[in-house]
Specification:
homodimer; globular; Rossmann fold; 9 strands; alpha/beta; 40% helix; 9-stranded mixed β-sheet; Alpha/beta hydrolase (chains A, B)
């Protein structure tokens, strides 16, 4: 893991860009002398780690006392996309404009995106936990499909905050019942592109004995800011 | 309003019993020299103000900085019940044991219970706001059916935290869209006696532009304690 730049932000948070082989990442850490717990934060469906809303959440959680890390995994964010992926996304846009069903198109590229992202997140986790400033335990926040796959594959994930707005491949909907870590599931009640009932069914399916749904009125991007604070408190209950 | 007893609790909260005409009530206030906002707290379907879980919530919110008041309204708690009410409750027990539908029985006695409780809660609110230690604004917490009726009838209610576990008469389900104050709606996902879909439909129906659903795994009485803290923070956003 090589740090390529660093910036001390006005809330005392240190933001560092790093590379780990081909993987570009960002690590936000609080001003703290003791090792702190870690939150892996992933944006929906492979959106970039530099997206403004993700960065705002990461900074807030870091200022609250967490190390927060995000990467652009293979095919995600600013990483190159395969020709098949580009073609699927073009087909998705066409189908959406035509008002045609899109589930199978989503399935064709979100499924592999999740599968390919998981080993890179695990490699990153290994490297992060070797840093002296990061202790544990480890939480996960954000992209639901990746969170399900990671929580099932990676025993070091101790709690997960998942955002319901995003296509969840059938494979992850089926393995949701194997997710047994404490969960906070965040739903936008009127999310334009994501059927509410499907999200409620997924919440029902999770195998965790401790799971909480927070639903707020409004569309996909309308999550109120206080949910970031609620998320911090959820992690405080399970990671501190 | 006459105070009949008082007790200083170990968290610095003063608990006072009062009577207001025929209405018995309890007022919990924090150790504070400035006037504090008020939360009216009502237990589901007319259960007593002295119920242990209500008292624990009231104390916690008072220690957090709120005046909290609860009453046994007409026909509620330890107040005498009408012969018709007793008969309806006996019929309810019989029907539940026999596995028969119970909606119409609930309707026959919860409807009047709500209607008769509202004027007594409003009278109590008048008296409470005349006390120098209570400022405003005013929140409501607990029994959903009463909360809907009060929020529609009483413009001084500025925010409401409602517990979904309890029968909501048709009249209140219909006027839910007139409830426009910020809402926190608390649902137990596996509440034995209260259909989940009916609660989700009610959340959908509320007219508030700012409404949040918190759902937790577990049965009717399994609400996790952190929801009391979340409730305090909800009121902090709207009453402070």
């Amino acid at each position: 893991m090589q740090f390529t730049s660093e910036q001390l932000l006005d809330d005392g948070v240190l933001a560092r860009e790093f590379t780990l082989g081909e993987i570009p990442g960002t690590l936000w850490t609080p001003a703290s002398s003791a090792p702190v717990p870690l939150i892996l934060m992933a944006h929906n469906n492979g959106l970039p780690k530099g997206a403004a809303r993700l960065v705002a959440r990461a900074r807030h959680s870091a200022a609250h006392g967490y190390a927060v890390a995000s990467i652009d995994a293979s095919g995600c964010g600013d990483r190159p996309r395969s020709a098949a992926d580009e073609q699927a996304r073009a087909e998705l846009r066409r189908a959406m404009q035509a008002g045609e069903p899109v589930d199978e198109i989503f399935e064709s590229f979100i499924g592999p995106l999740v599968e390919n992202a998981v080993p890179e997140w695990r490699t990153t986790l290994d490297a992060l936990l070797a840093l002296p400033e990061i202790g544990g335990p480890v939480g996960y926040s954000g992209w639901t499909a990746l969170g399900i796959r990671l929580a099932v594959a990676e025993p070091r994930i101790a709690a997960a905050g998942l955002f319901a707005g995003g296509y969840v491949p059938r494979a992850q909907r089926e393995e949701a019942r194997q997710v047994t870590v404490p969960l906070l599931f965040l739903l936008q009640w009127d999310d334009e592109g994501n059927p509410r009932q499907r999200a409620l069914d997924l919440f029902d399916a999770f195998g965790a004995t401790e799971k909480t749904l927070h639903a707020n009125l409004g569309g996909h991007t309308g999550t109120p800011w206080f949910e970031v604070e609620d998320g911090n408190r959820f992690f405080d209950r399970h990671l501190k």
